[in-house]
Amino acid sequence: MTSLSAKDKNTVKAFWAKISPNAAAIGADALSRMLVVYPQTKTYFAHWKDLSPGSAPVKKHGATVMGGVADAVAKIDNLTAGLLNLSELHAFTLRVDPANFKILAHNILVVLAITFPNDFTPEVHVAMDKFLAAVALALSEKYR
Amino acid sequence: MVEWTEQERSIITSIFSNLDYEDVGPKALSRCLIVYPWTQRYFASFGNLYNADAIKTNPNIQAHGTRVLHGLDRAVKNMDNIKSTYAELSVLHSEKLHVDPDNFKLLADCLTIVIAAKMGSGFTPEMQATFQKFLAVVVSALGRQYH
Question: Which of A33, A110, A123 is closest, CB to CB, to B113?
Answer without folding.
Answer: A110
